[in-house]
Each structure stands twice: as C-alpha cells, then as structure tokens.
Request: fold
Amino acid sequence: MRDLDLTSLRLFVTVCETRNIARAGELENIVASAISKRLAQLESVVGTQLLERRRRGVAPTAAGEILLEHARGMLAGAERAARDMAAYGRGIKGQVRMLASVSSIAESLPDDIADFLQAPGHEDIRVDIEESLSRDLVRAIREGSASLGVCWDAADLEGLQTRRYRSDRLAVVAHASHPLARQPQCSFEETLPFDQIGLPASTAVHTMLARAAAIIGQPMTYRALVSTFDAELRCVRANLGIAIAPREVVEPFAHNSGLRVIALTDAWAERNFSICFRNEGALSPAARLLLAHLTARADAVAGDPHMRPAQCG
Reply:
C-alpha cells in the first residue's frame, strides 16, 4: 500500500464529520469534484470502499470508521509536530498541550504547573492548558490531540494510562440567612427542598448530582444554571439559592463574602482526579517531566494533611 496522503486524510475526516462532500468543500475551500477525486484515490490506496452514499449525504463504511479513527490520530500527530517545530524555532525546548476539567483548573492545577515551570531546568518548557469537559477531554487524549489530561476519575478512562492526581470534596454554599447556614454539615438529601444554583448539564458536577438525586427519587430544582464557579457563587451571594461545589474552590470566596460552607456528609462527595494519557513511553520528554512533577505534588499533598485546604463551616 502506498503512503497515505495527509491532505486526503484531512478531507476524508471533514467529509465524515459534515456527512456532505459539498459542505466539506466549503469548509476546506476546495471544489467538491476535487474532494471526490481525492477520496477515490484514497479508496484506491487502501483497497476498499470508505464512504457510502445516503439520501442526505454520505456516511463512512465500517472500514471508513476504522480509517477515520487512525486519520484523526495521524492529523493530530502532524499538527503537534508542526507546533513543536515552530516552538523550537522560537527557542522553546519543549512544549506540552494539556486538557483539564473546570474543577481541576479552578483548584490546584495552575499552581502545580507554575511550580513546575519555575523549577531549574524547565525554563525552556512551555505548557499550554485548555479547559475541557471530561468526555471531550478523554476523546481528545485518545485521538492524540493533547499529551495529558486531568479529569474526575469517574470518567470513562478505558484504554488510557492514568496516574492519581488530587482529590476534592463537594460542599454546600449558602447565604448567611439560609436555613442550612446554621448547620455545620448536612446530607445531599437535605438540600433538595431548596432552590439550587448549578453548572450546565454537560459538566461532571451536574451529572454527579443528577445521578444522586435520581437514586434518592427526588428532583433538583435549579433557579439558575451558570457557566463558572464564580457566577455560581455570585448568585448564592445574591441569595438566589444554594450551590454545591468543590470546597477547595468556594472557601476563599465564601470567607470574603460572608457565605457559609456546609460539609456534605455523603461518601460520594469526595472526588478523585486522575492524570490520563495514551502511552507514557510515547510522551515527549517535557510531558514526562510534567507528569512526574504532578504525580509527586499529588503524593506530597496526600501524605501531608497540612498542605490540604482547611475545613470551614
């Protein structure tokens, strides 16, 4: 089999994602007939049909689905290679692209990365971090478009290698005048009669709470859904409702805003985060250094209770 052409693979991926050759042509700024010719040549190279025509466009065949997965990985690898070479041209000796959940970014991850970058010998390493939903993060790591990911370990991490990272604990945040504010702790079930402020349904926290409410058999009543923890806490400060969020995120804001943080007694309120990656042996030297640093930081925090955030009521 002749070498696969990256341009043809990119066009093939675009066609599979749009399910329409004409639409793919518009996105890639190329006429549809040229794409069709490229796809025919690609089918000739691999020796099998990759697309089948349907009433409203095209769809990959079973063989096409297999090539699609490989093509995404090859294109991501080529993009990383180009980005790394450009980085070397600017004098950067290493570059790591990292994806992380909103909770990990709002908590300890930025500080841990900053500590890594300030260490001797790491001056020429660049770490790019991007917030991502857990399901999208895991898919991107599998496809090779990022080196490392940090997310809640309840995500579907099958097929990936992982290292234990940090943990946090969900707590209730309430206005000082709220009935729950007088309690040092409460169960999740005790929060259900009250209006809640939450994050979008696509986030891990929302999914976790919805599952817990379904098990209890009572609905959650959301008065507001917002996109950030900061907006969530501002709504609580306005006494629009209570919020359930990581204690490590809300405590600094709560102390300065007169809010109350009430410990959740449910066992599932403690969450563990993992660092995930495809294959440690295939990581760049810079990515391996960062992985070792984050793992060591997590081990140090786990072994030293004084390094953990303090409880508050």
Q: What stands out?
A: The two ends are 66 Å apart (CA to CA). Confidence is low (pLDDT under 50) at residues 308-313. The chain has twelve helices and twelve strands. The longest helix spans residues 62-89.
